[in-house]
Amino acid sequence: MMIATWNVNSLKVRLPQVLGWLESKKPTILCLQETKCPDDAFPVEAFAEAGFHVAFSGQRTYNGVAIVSQEPLQDVNTNPSCLNDVGKRVVAATVGDLRIVSVYAPNGQAPDSEKYLYKLAWYAYLTDWVKTELARYPAMILAGDFNVAPDDRDVYDPKAWQGHVLVTEKEREAFRRLLQIGFYDALRLFTEDGGIYTWWDYRQGAFWRNWGLRIDHVLLSEVLKNKILRVEVDRKARGAKKTSDHAPLIVTLKDV
DNA sequence: ATGGCGCGCGCAGCGCGA
Q1: Which pLDDT tens digit goes with each residue over A75-132?
Q2: With DSSP H G I counted as helix, E B as strand and the rest as coil, what are the percentages for chain A, rounded to 5?
């Protein structure tokens, strides 16, 4: 099976590109973030015509997450109660034996900001909730924009980024605590190479200079960690016209 | 040090993202 995650920075603007991508890649599951799309405006029909089921949780202007799946989605949870969150940042659903969670972590703005404290608190809530969820669903995948570059290999210029949001030690700790409850960073199971990024700034031709960060991740629970065939970033999608500033991250698993 | 781009909202220019 192939599971992908993509922060699309507005599903309304990106819908044609997302549908084209689904048609060419034919992923089993695609998790979306930053749909910026209220639930009553979600393009359910467009996905249905393309042969995909959807689960979503969105709002105007900000945030918004979805799961797009070839197989029907069951036990959809759009509002984990212990997440205590005003933003729509998590949606979970079951596909066969797999529990899938599409995640959009807060950005954090700046290390001395209220939003940064909110981000750290949000990670603590997420970790608590995921722990409970993992006890119910041993085969679990968290896929999304975690807004943390786990270590300096994941940053194009660690010195320039030092002290900035996305790379601070507290954020990295929060991310590691999430992993410690029983998850594995799929890319790091596949390769130890640095310089693999999923986001590039729109400005300064950052993509063409490969000034990027690895902040989108697919996290696999223990029972799935030995099933990886391939992990790749679809840089071609990032290089397209009218693109998101994130590229899709694709994980292929065997026997799932 | 700042803003640089793109989006939503809404019709100007700002807040926000990362």
Answers
A1: 999 988 777 677 899 999 999 999 999 999 999 999 999 999 999 999 999 999 999 9
A2: 35, 25, 40
d(CA A255, CA A250) in angstroms, rounded, equals 16
DSSP per residue over A112-162, as a string? Answer: TSHHHHHHHHHHHHHHHHHHHHHHH-SSEEEEEE-----SGGGBS-HHHHT
Q: Is the CB of A75 under 7 A from strand B?
A: no
CA angle A103, A14, A21 (to 5 degrees): 85
Ramachandran sector of residue A25 (left: φ over 0; alpha: ψ -120 to 50; beta: rest): alpha
* Cα dihedral A71/A77/A79/A83 (nearest 10): -110
Query: What are the structure tokens assigned to A251, written together?
Result: 């994980």
> Which one, of A228, A230, A233, A231, lies nearest residue A214 by Cα?
A233
In the block, tokens 């490969």 appear at: A210
Verify if strand B has an atom below 7 Å from the CB of A225.
Answer: no
**Contact in structure between A19 and A45 (CB atoms under 8 Å):** no
Which of residues 110-149 of A have CB within 7 Å of strand B?
A: 110, 115, 145, 147
pLDDT by residue (tens digit) across A206-254? 999 999 999 999 999 999 999 999 999 999 999 999 999 999 999 999 9
User: CB–CB of A73/A54 below 8 Å?
Assistant: yes
Helices A169-180 and A114-136: crossing angle in degrees, nearest 10, is 10
